[in-house]
Design goal:
With 335 residues, this protein is mostly helical. It has one domain: ABC transporter involved in vitamin B12 uptake, BtuC (Orthogonal Bundle), CATH 1.10.3470. It has a two-stranded antiparallel ribbon with strand order 1-2. The relative contact order is 0.16. It comes from Rhodoplanes tepidamans (Rhodoplanes cryptolactis). Keywords: Cell membrane, Membrane, Transmembrane, Transmembrane helix. It is found in: Cell membrane.
């Protein structure tokens, strides 16, 4: 017999579902209108800043897909960002700049690296999985550092942004901004569709109890491997955009510190919410930018602040917003 859900219990669920729809709409609408605001305020530098923010939001979404929905804590996700960036830089060094070539090559390289490493990494669990993803990430980092023909430790300058069928569409800042925004929206909707599908339900079920899902007949390893490859390709896309945004490629893109920053972005925004990853990337990079204008020792403030937020704020910024909305709603009902 199905138990009826009372109005008191149904109301919070309704509010949460409405918030889950409303917040992403507001977030993406604000990002879409930002070029108009920057033009009105003559603050062109904000456009470049938010291009960088959205690129890292794409990479953060790939991390949230793994950690938030599959419970796969990885410290090697930056390696895929670096692979995507190096695909653009290395092809550009040979005068191959068209996006129709660079993007598939970057996605293929990231996907293959994710497949090969995932076959090994996913045989382990817990802290062993974390350490082996870290090891593969550092392997990619040191390999990039040893590529003397492509700059080695000094990195590689991208002399020309990617073209589209020979047309330099990305050279215009506003066009490039909207291309990055379209990529972010496409990745967000793709991840959201995946999570809502049978594939996503299996991932979430394995996160809660992998043994039970295996008993039900699902091959959890294969589902996790597919998720790992998809996340790697998403991070590779972020790398393609990052190389075009900075017009520079460096082994530092692959460092474990960068992977740690992506994890912090997800935790800061709200683990397992997708739009929390986007919000976390915005908050992380804007806070970093603001503190850097106050003092050259801004990391002394930034580090402890992030630790306090992650440790004491359950659910990140999304959790804070939900708690505040609930408190206001209760106050209004009483009043």
């Amino acid at each position: 017999m199905t138990q009826a859900v009372g109005p008191v219990e149904a109301a919070p669920r309704t509010r949460r579902s409405r918030a889950a729809v409303a917040l992403p709409l507001v977030l993406f609408a604000a990002l879409a209108l930002l070029p108009l605001v920057t033009a009105a305020l003559s603050a062109g530098y904000m456009l470049d800043l938010f291009v960088r923010v959205m690129i890292f939001a794409i990479a953060a979404l790939s991390v949230d897909l793994l950690i938030g929905y599959a419970a796969l804590v990885t410290f090697g996700q930056a390696a895929f960002v670096g692979l995507g960036a190096y695909a653009v830089g290395m092809l550009g060094a040979h005068e191959i700049t068209d996006l129709t070539i660079a993007l598939p090559v970057a996605l293929l390289a990231s996907g293959l690296f994710a497949l090969v490493t995932g076959l090994v990494c996913l045989r382990t669990k817990g802290v062993y999985f974390i350490m082996i993803t870290l090891a593969f990430g550092q392997m990619a980092f040191f390999t990039a550092s040893s590529l003397a023909p492509y700059g080695g430790d000094d990195g590689l300058t991208v002399h020309e942004r990617s073209t589209l069928f020979g047309v330099a569409v990305l050279d215009r800042p506003v066009v490039f901004y909207y291309v990055v925004l379209a990529a972010l929206l496409a990745v967000y909707l793709t991840c959201r569709t995946l999570i809502a599908s049978r594939f996503g339900r299996v991932l979430r079920g394995a996160k809660d109890n992998a043994l039970r899902m295996t008993t039900l007949g699902f091959q959890v390893y294969r589902f996790q491997l597919v998720a790992y490859v998809i996340a790697g390709m998403i991070a590779g896309l972020a790398g393609v955009l990052l190389a075009n945004a900075t017009e520079f490629v460096s082994p530092a893109y692959m460092s474990w510190q960068r992977s740690g920053e992506l994890i912090i972005m997800v935790l800061l925004g709200g683990l397992g919410t997708l739009h929390g990853a986007v919000l976390g990337a915005i908050a992380f990079l804007l806070l970093e930018e603001w503190l850097a204008t106050l003092t050259e020792h801004w990391k002394m403030i930034f580090g402890p602040l992030l630790v306090l937020v992650v440790v004491f704020v359950r659910g990140g910024l999304i959790g804070i917003g939900t708690a505040l909305a609930g408190a206001v709603s209760r106050r209004l009902r009483r009043g």
